[in-house]
Amino acid sequence: MDHFTYKSGALHAEDVSLTDIAKAVGTPFYVYSTATLERHFRLFDEGLQGVDHLICYAMKAASNQAILKTLARLGAGMDVVSGGEYQRAIAAGVPPERIVFSGVGKTRAEMEMVLAGGLRQVNVESEPEMHLLNEVAQSLGKTVPITVRVNPDVDAKTHAKIATGKSENKFGIPISKAREVYNLAAQLEGLQVVGIDVHIGSQLTDLEPFALAYRKVAELTETLRTDGHDIKRLDLGGGLGIPYSKSNENPPLPYEYLDLIKRETGHLGCKIELEPGRLIAGNAGLLVSSVIYVKEGEGRQFMIVDAAMNDLIRPAMYEAHHDVVTVVEPAPRQPVMEYDIVGPVCETGDTFAKERAVAQVKSDDLVAFRTAGAYGAVMASEYNSRPLVPEVLVKGDQFAVIRPRPTLEEMINRDTLPSWL
Questions:
Q1: What is the pLDDT of residue 169?
Q2: Is 27 a member of any domain?
Q3: Known catalytic residues?
Q4: Is pTM, for the whole model, over 0.90?
């Protein structure tokens, strides 16, 4: 569910017309709904009521500080994967004790930063990382709580580029080596083992891979406790899929996923940590764009819009689907046309959709790419010297620009010339 609906003939974000936002900030732009962000967080938080838990939003999905602060006020923690994300979370007012540091390539500088600033735990991905973290912790006179990310070799049945739990993926340690690695961790004086971490992929639309992975984690928990380790936290990651197309996708509902977690791990008495990102932010955001031209091709029509692959790279990178709708509500008998929807970047890959049925459009009409709140603005670039698009947050009948569009001069003036030029 989201809070983007037609009212008085125009698509609104909550009670704000997208046409009004377009007039104020220009196109393209991202717009997020506060009500949707809050609702999706509460689905997880309230769904685990009665279970000791912490919901750590995976901020790589959408990391604007306004989004982070909106969620932090509800009690959300943050799952960060870089020093920059850590600093963003701190700047947004997230308490350090609610920040989990994940990521496969943590550097010494990042470790020093998060240990100096404080955090909940580090999710360790490898033995070399474990040794370095121990060295850094001891140099700072600290003991850092850790989990070890185990790779359960479970096929998440998702896109190959977002699968993380198979043996050939770069993430975590093989679960078959877990006892050996945990015994090593117990010998390192700068580390305190507190739990187990697992994450098998993103955009999962089947609960069975989760069940297989969590059963393996439950078995490992009991084995490690027998070995003398105090396993009291289970970081079960995120990855639950969302419907990108209203017509043909039906992923499990959050309550079904949460019930599965209770069934598979409830007997262990562990605090449950979850790291949803896409499910919280995805349907909470749209990318709004203007039609530049409608062009007749050989046996097809092109809808050329002012958004491009540098603004929303998911279709080019993952062959991802986003529903596209007109901002002005189609009239009952308005013709529906099939368009190849493309941007102005000089790449054939700058294609959002092929032969997509959309209400007939003309130049200057507004269209919206649905379910663009996750992995949209955060993955954007300035390719073709196109400025990053603004981000807008709506709350009720109010809206605010939470990241302005830089001018061409600001973008170009970030370059510096060497003395010989």
A1: 54
A2: yes
A3: 346
A4: yes
